[in-house]
Amino acid sequence: MFTLHLRAKPEAKTTALQVAADGSVTVRLKAPAQDGKANACLLAYLAEVFGVSKSSVELLSGHTAPFKKVRIGGVDEAAGQAVLARLRTPS
């Protein structure tokens, strides 16, 4: 299992994951931050990015906060870091 710490930014123009040079992860979400829509969008998007089922992605903390902790089942630490490295923004 891979645990990801990230910052979510709802109500963006498009949904996208960005990894800064320092390793911090930001996910911009098209969905609004109301009635759990942004969290649902986040989990579905992370499932797509990491190539796992939606049920394999679990929000551990940060349900109502911008900083979130997410567990991704079926992905080990090395595979998770490889996906993030592929998405890293050049410095």
Question: What does it look like?
Answer:
The chain is an alpha+beta fold and 91 residues long. It has one domain: 2-Layer Sandwich (Conserved Hypothetical Protein Mth637, Chain: A). It is 27% helix and 30% strand. The protein has a five-stranded mixed sheet. A hairpin with a 5-residue loop joins β2 (16-19) and β3 (25-28). The relative contact order is 0.26. The model has no long low-confidence stretch (mean pLDDT 94).
Write the layout of secondary structure elements.
Blueprint lengths: L1 E8 L6 E4 L5 E4 L8 H14 L6 E5 L5 E6 L4 H11 L4
Parallel strand pairs: 1-3
Antiparallel strand pairs: 1-5, 2-3, 4-5
Keywords:
91 residues, 2 helices, globular
CATH class: Alpha Beta
Largest sheet: 5 strands, mixed
Number of beta strands: 5
Q: Please report the number of helical segments.
A: 2
Contiguous low-pLDDT stretches (5 residues minimum) are none
Secondary-structure-derived class: alpha+beta
Distance between the termini: 29 Å
CATH superfamily: YggU-like
Global Rg: 12 Å
Q: Using the alpha-carbon principal axes, give the shape.
A: globular
CATH architecture name: 2-Layer Sandwich
CATH topology value:
Conserved Hypothetical Protein Mth637, Chain: A
